[in-house]
User: Fold this.
Amino acid sequence: MTEYDQGPDGGSRPLPTAHDALAPYLAAPETGAYAKLSISLPEPLITAVREVADSTGVSVSGVIAASLRRLLDEVEQARLDRALEEDREENLAWAKATAPGDALLLADIEW
Assistant:
């Protein structure tokens, strides 16, 4: 187990393996042009990436690309969740403000 497989408290976490977490992203088809990029990473991270690459049969570049795709999806989801939460508060305030009038309208409807 690498430091990247540990929970925030340092203990092991019953979360999916890196392979499980990246599976949908590893299968994503790549389109468009490719560019070569040289990056420096900490050794433990390189070890973890190579282990996932070995276990999946995907290249190291493919594992890094899948990881980045997953990260970008998580960031986008967090942005959407935040926007929905902001709308939630506004919608609740509106519902509370209009509830008395809505109750009067509903009282006049024959069911």
